[in-house]
Design brief:
Length: 445
Amino acid sequence: MAGERQAQGTKVRATTPARIDVEGLSGALRRGTVKKNVAAIHIGGKLTLLQRKLSNVLLLNAYDTLLSQSVHRIDARTLCLMIGYNSNDIDSLRDALRGLAETVAEWDMLDEKGRQEWGVSALLAHARLRDGVCDYAYSPALAEKLHDPRVFALINLDIQRRFTSGHGLALYENCYRFVRTGSTGWWPLEVFRRLMGVDDSDYYRSFKHLNAKVIKPSVEEVNRSSNILIEPEFKRMGRSVKELRFLIRENPQLAMLDIDDGQALRSQPVYERLRAQGVSDRLARQWISEHGAEAVAEKLDWVSGRDNVRSPVGFLRAALDNGWAGEGTPPAQAPVPEPSDAARKAADARIARQAEAEAEIDMRAARRAARVARFQAVAEAVKRRNPTQRDADRRLMLSQLEGELEREDFRRHGWESALNARAIFAFWEEMQPGLFEELPELPPE
């Protein structure tokens, strides 16, 4: 039905998208959630699913230098991989970038002095694809709002890729910021329609249609695909629904599985070169994400071609941070006095702590990868069993679980129960010896 389709005009009223969280980034981007602003910018829904994912990745890439750098760059292939998109379809990427440049972002909020502030800006001031690199810019006023840590929640990049509908991702973005408070608070229906991008559709003026086509499918997708579980509640006036809110809690299943969001970056050829140089997994992904694969490869070529480099990783870090040119040399600096013994010891201790922290991060990543591989092997083993065997397997597994919490989680999630991961792996190792023989070792907790 024509009235049921969401309008996709070239100039729509939308608000800026939420932050993305990706493992390996530094600074503010590593926080899991951010408290909402008193009058926070909401997420407009009139972006297509691809545009919404794209805007999140661009913002993630630019966040650290939003206020200090006017133009931001990212390798186009990396950009496509990070949104789970076919990197060969450049025409669709161009269309999505054009849509962001033609989309209007609007905010109406309190400034730091408590004064009401209204503003409007194109979501992107410009975007350009050239030689496999995408460069883009935000208007100064919008960049200031995007960088305000009070305004937005941080969103896991891998979770965003799991969404298949724009309404579902829009609802997730608008709910996730409230995960700490447990509820969105009451929204008038007209506000909710605007957040979902259906405020100009007569079809969705009917709550029956809104609930059937937007609310129920979006709630189901958020609960199935994300790290939170939401439940709608409705406030009625007479027989009519006037307001709604969403109760929010963490999804223990996906939170415990801790989705790995670094596979796209690890697929870059330059990632293997960095690892061969002794760069940690976390730092390699951080550099590729922040500087782009092409820039990292260029600096890596330069460092590899220099003689008498005692610390290639440290030299590469300096080259990336300071923008040293591939054909040049580091800028001349004034002589630096020899550090004191106390300064050396403090530096050694700091390096040791950093190495220990990076080793722990790498260990957690290895543990996640091993758990995911084992769950996949279990799923394949279950498929090969006939229905009678599957039923017997489940009953036997339940009988071996001691706690009611563990049993209830297994009843709900079956062989995907993250709470019972160790017990499930032990069960299937006994059932089918060698099932996990070719998989990576499962590091200790």
